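Form P-L/3: holo structure prediction, ligand benzoic acid.
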Amino acid sequence: MRNINEDTITQAVLASITNCKDERFRQVMTSLVQHLHSFAREINLTEDEWFKGIQFLTATGHITDDVRQEFILLSDVLGLSTLVTAQNNIKPEGCTEATVFGPFFVEDAPTYPLGADMANGAGGEPCFVQGKITDPQGIALAGVSMDVWQSDEDGHYDVQLPRTESGHHEHRARGRFISDAHGGYHFRSILAQPYPIPHDGPVGKMLEALGRHPWRPAHLHFMLVAHGFERLITHVFRDQDRYLDSDAVFGVRSTLIADWVRHEAGTAPDGSLVDRPFYTLDYDFVLNPVKASAQP
Ligand code: BEZ
Ligand code: FE
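OUTPUT (holo model):
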């Protein structure tokens, strides 16, 4: 393996990985090397450009930690997250569509009783959310675990705010609910607002250089888990939002847009009195059964 040149390098790298025991890993790396090399050839990548790319990835690594996921952002703004989500979540007509996960989910959100206010101090106009979870035949699904998370009125998720003295992030505007015997769910929170994805790092600089904005249309994140059904990771978006057709991470699907209705101060759906205007959102979810062959 000497005197390798522009024409023989790709084959040389591919030959070097033939002993890889993990067949899928070898397949993935073979394709990655082929595409990377084709890319460099196609655009005649210069040494300066190659080094700029290395610097960009280095900066992306440096800013990344357990709550600042710059590599996920990079995947999101390049459309890779939406592509991978779309090709792995093909569902029958009528099932709720999936969309990007995003970087702000946390594993240990508190479980609240139905009807609770998950805002937990996050600022924003009151919003009451309710709906039903069913299978494709309309049969109610009880006991579904539903994680919900969203930003506050300033566009910040709790994990983006300063940690408490004990070094933790307080859980705000996020929580887990369990559907009732009729597949119903309801909770109180705050009105979602459009917000820019974190853009003070290398991905933000890249967006600016590309003439793109960092904004996402207002949305609530949901993750639904039920035995015998595919896990659903999705959003519900606010109708009329100005960014629905230019989402920085390409996550909007028409079936996920809903009407968030404004009400004057008065009696809320849970019977409580609200002394300022509030919103209601009604959204039903349809889960896709796991195919019999895929069940453990
Ligand atoms: C989000 O909606 O939380 C999100 C998704 C992708 C990138 C940044 C944020
Ligand atoms: Fe979000």
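COMMENT: The helical segments are 9-16, 23-42, 47-63, 70-77, 80-88, 202-209.
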